[in-house]
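Troubleshooting: if your tokenizer reports a length mismatch, compare your output against this known-good record of 300 residues.
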Amino acid sequence: MVKIAVLVTDINWFQFLRKEQDLQTVNFWNPSGMGFTKLKQGELVLFKLKSPVNKIAGGGVFTHFEKLPWKMAWDTFGRGNGAETANKFHVQLLSNRNNTNTESFVIGCTILSNPFFLDDGAFLNEPKDWKPSIVRGKYYDTSEHIGMQLWHDAQYFLWQDNLDEQERFGPPQLIHPRLGQGAFRSLIRANYNNRCAVTKERTLPVLEAAHIKPYSQGGSHELSNGILFRSDIHKLFDEGYVTVTPNYKFEVSRRLHEEYHNGKIYYDLCGNDIFIPSDKKQTPPDTNLLEWHNNNCYKG
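Known-good structure output:
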């Protein structure tokens, strides 16, 4: 059984995102901080446009939900929030909060991967049991006739260029989301409980998701290829002045001191165990990727 959420969607948000090219992640935000948290990663979200359209016009794969200060949501997802600039995004949020203008208010972020947006002539009818009184959305699942029909309709648009007919219309199952940069950053934060793996720092604006093997060199946006670092440690990691060994210890290169005649705060951390996600829902760093970083990036 796979759960499907049909969510009432702002038409302007939808139209803006439909014009964007090569979006891998979109943020279905809620200014009140609420979200559709009953979904599992890999289940479906469908966009049901408001009146007067009243049609299903697209969707995506649920990645996860998190609450973020609006500025961080912009920094993480950019135009994937459905706005051209941070200022326009802020204006949209304020119009949905009765103009409660605080600089750091928190919004609910339902993060979707594999988004698809239908042309006007391809819109799907709303579910037969849909009621005009529904203002946020409704859950369905594939054990029900309506849910199964929604599943099949969505599969066609999600995978028409990637799966053959047998795969496309096989038994419903969770979909492995194709993560973009924004979803990767957000998931890494959640995977490390919003704290730096080395320093345990929890100040959200200075925490950054680092790729162990850079994306530009063939690394993926998978959780196993990421670690959450404080921004200064992230920069040193990318430049090879620090690393994490395959047994999860933090190491600092002698060249940091040789080249910059400083670095005491980092050498004091050298040899410490990093924080490793251990919950069954979390993913630790891939030891093979850590070895790759040790051999190909670390300055020793």
